[in-house]
Amino acid sequence: MEEKLKYNTTIGEQIGYLVKMDQTNLAATTLESDLIELVNIFVSQINGCAFCTNAHLKKARKVNTDERKLTFLPVWKEAHLYTEREQMALDLAYKITNIQNYVVTDGYYHRVRTIFSEKEYLELILVINNINFWNRMMLATGNSSITE
């Protein structure tokens, strides 16, 4: 796409509602900030959104996320650096982002619930779907690249 669509000015009111919802939801979550940013980066990498990957790498560094965890995120299963909560969050993020290939079965749900409370599980789903929305918005409007 040659010209980037100016979604934030063209449909600014609607985007404003989504930004406010995004900020409100993240402010109210009980999930750890670094866990949220790991999920945001990982999903953005899966979706190929350089802009969102870059933005969330910056946020992750602001909340002091371990630099090795940021480096090895694409190969998190082999890195053995991540907590059980982080591993489960990344696995769930992968499954939801690629939902056409995966079903959250009862057994998987029960495994997730041994690590996350019901509220945390629902918040995590919200975080995953939120970043998927923004990745898709950026990709569909030609705003997914970085120039810095």
From TrEMBL:
Residue ranges constituting the Carboxymuconolactone decarboxylase-like domain according to the UniProt record: 19-93
Gene source species: Periweissella fabalis
Record lineage: Bacteria, Bacillati, Bacillota, Bacilli, Lactobacillales
Name by which UniProt lists this protein: Carboxymuconolactone decarboxylase family protein
PANTHER family in the cross-refs: 4-CARBOXYMUCONOLACTONE DECARBOXYLASE FAMILY PROTEIN (AFU_ORTHOLOGUE AFUA_6G11590), CYTOPLASMIC PROTEIN
Domain of life of the native organism: Bacteria
Matches recorded under Pfam families: CMD
Gene3D superfamilies: AhpD-like (1.20.1290.10)
Gene Ontology molecular functions: peroxiredoxin activity
